[in-house]
Amino acid sequence: MFESANLGQTVAKEAYEREVPALRASLLDAQYDLFEAKRFPVLVIIAGVEAAGKAETVQRLNEWMDPRHIVNHGFLTPSSEEAERPPMFRFWRALPPKGRIGIFFGSWYTMPILDRAFRKTSVAEFERSIDEIRHLERMLANEGVLIVKFWFHLSKERERKRLKALERDPATRWKVPKRSWEFFRHYDRLMKVNERILRETSTAEAPWTVIDAWDEHYRELTVGRVLLDAMRARLAGQAAPTVTAPPINPRVENVKLVRSLDLSQRIDKAEYDRRLAKHQGRFAQLLRGKKFDGRSLILVFEGADAAGKGSAIRRVAGALDARYYRIVPIAAPTDEERAQPYLWRFWRHVPGHRGVVIFDRSWYGRVLVERVEGFCSESDWMRAYDEINGFETELARNGAILCKFWLQISKAEQLRRFRERERTRFKRFKITEEDWRNRKKWGAYEQAVADMVDRTSTDHAPWTLVEADDKRFARVKVLKTIVDRLEASL
Amino acid sequence: MFESANLGQTVAKEAYEREVPALRASLLDAQYDLFEAKRFPVLVIIAGVEAAGKAETVQRLNEWMDPRHIVNHGFLTPSSEEAERPPMFRFWRALPPKGRIGIFFGSWYTMPILDRAFRKTSVAEFERSIDEIRHLERMLANEGVLIVKFWFHLSKERERKRLKALERDPATRWKVPKRSWEFFRHYDRLMKVNERILRETSTAEAPWTVIDAWDEHYRELTVGRVLLDAMRARLAGQAAPTVTAPPINPRVENVKLVRSLDLSQRIDKAEYDRRLAKHQGRFAQLLRGKKFDGRSLILVFEGADAAGKGSAIRRVAGALDARYYRIVPIAAPTDEERAQPYLWRFWRHVPGHRGVVIFDRSWYGRVLVERVEGFCSESDWMRAYDEINGFETELARNGAILCKFWLQISKAEQLRRFRERERTRFKRFKITEEDWRNRKKWGAYEQAVADMVDRTSTDHAPWTLVEADDKRFARVKVLKTIVDRLEASL
How far apart are the C-alpha atoms of B178 and B185, rounded to whole Å? Predict the structure, then answer.
């Protein structure tokens, strides 16, 4: 990967000064086009060896373009809010919105590289990190993010020279913290790790540009030109690299999953009161326990209209102290959410330690309503299964316990509830024209649900199909499922 | 304050059960009206003595209404992000948006009460906290927030009985942490502090309702009814209590402040290069120093169109490592911002320790463009001076160093720059129809600037008027001002 970056690329000062004005004007022009169109964001990742001029180059980009529309992120020590969440959380919250350029110094590459080079992780763990990064970058690219990655390289000899020179000058000595020499001592080992991760993450949708970082003029011009070309190409309408959705098994007759549910199951009032109280009590107790330290609980509720999501959520929340849970109703995205990749609006609600978040509808909207109504393209919802599995894996690996519920009712029961709601004054906002429209697509929803369950029910985030014609039965089943899962997980 | 709450108010079980269905239906109905209209948010503050049933009552409200549109907040230990910012930061970020009900358990009352009762603060500091709270609540009310505050009271004897009873039952023992008895031992002292703060913060715009918290039926019904009445009254169009803006000095001929600036001041190129480099170097050095620990820097740039804000900001940013500053350009608010009180969108950018935030336009929009263009009512911008001073005081008290710049150019120089910009390709987005319109209101802006400087230039957040007909002069003055201020403050 580093061969051409060891050639000693230079640009003479005069050539640099001749080139810069035009480059700068073009970059600024492209930046304003980007800002005006607000069609996509640009994410620039700057990584590489110590003292290679990364900070100086970022400085230059901010100088050449309008720094007011650039968001720079350093990623130093994580805050407590970040430390309690999956490692990718802090990067998600820092993503630039459409129309802006985000520059990440340090990124999702830093920790996997250092952890492997200093033997804090095994080869297998390192490989898993690489997979996660490829997965994330593919998703971002598919969501329209233009990803431009630069690796600043110095040969071992030049790295030594650079560090010595910086140390000699009192004005630049602060730029060489202890860490720099520590890294230098392990140059070869680091380089092996770097080589591997660069090779495996240099993909069509997010390629690396390795920069010979010795000569500042060469370094700056190259970064500027590569960034400009990438922005111009995308602005000119050149599509993001098409990424095929992960392969899909031939359709099996899986709609039975939904149709074969026994919706006649019922619980009488006395039994309901007894069992609900029991499960609620146990639920509250489990969440108060020591074993819940460092963990969190994420509940997802999906279901047909009028299937009783709201009332089930109420029974779940009813067991808990209101200070410790949060219900997130998912409706139309806000404009800040619309300017970001699809999963961004869910990442922002990921709970910290001992947190409980209840999603009333969720990221599954993409493979349910958006699929059925054609709000997104087929390739968008097809790739979503894999993206969602990745997201939930990150949550689970960070200690989250996930339960996902699909509440199913019969068509006849739905009609009965629609009619009843129309009669009841304080339920009036629950029944809309849209509900009647959705009802006509019953079969398409059944198929979408079956596919969703087939493809996203995993060990660490299983789906539970809830027979909900009888609300009491449904609520008890939901609570019992949560309690069982907590007992098994804590 | 507590007399009637010591009377022993009760409601019989039968009466309670008779009342609840109608109350619940009405609350739900009001909640949906609120949600549908999205005209204002409701903030419910629940405070009071230990073990008075606060959590249970919040639980009940969540049960009676639709919990998906209620946001409950507990305010336990602050996160590191919160701990680095002014105490009010965590409450601002938790404010409910228009259309929602936010329930604060614990609030801006908790710490001032405890700190005073346990003698961690002086009477003077306690009084200052009271002032801040009155100030904040008045602002929120003026911004349309419906504030409903409940204080749960128990007499000393009943508090003792309640704690004992909870402790006796193994199922409720966990509800009595050590803290509860510790507070009980200081019951009288706490009550004196409570009495004072309640009295002084029971204002027309945010009155307290003191609840006799012994009987759960009484407690719940009363809270429900008071909340319902408040919501109904506001929904029926009853205006928020009108609050007179703080008294204003009769207008003095202050426009001279702006008009008497000597815009002919110039610096030649050589002098500029020398001084700019000197100040930039010193600036970078000061921010790297140990003394900046626990501090932050907030820069505000305002100015006429084409006055050179952007290029001044660029010179300031140019001195710094891009990882450590953030430029926040203020344009039209997003819909999440529009659903919140005016200052919310600025609070979210308040920096943590060692942070630098540069605002390109700012909260002064309200007393500049919004005033001149009539985008807000006169009473809105009149009260803004006082609100802004309060905001900046909080920032400064938390260690922020503030510098505010108004860049002034002559009308002739503005015209010259407009024309130039129209000719230059990569500056094309900088000149709009609006700029030409604003230009016609030159005099009104001069008056607005003079009033702004008069009323918001304070010791801890002074305005600097910058003569900006010569860009070099302006940039050097800006940087020198920042450096001088940092040197004086660190």
Answer: 11
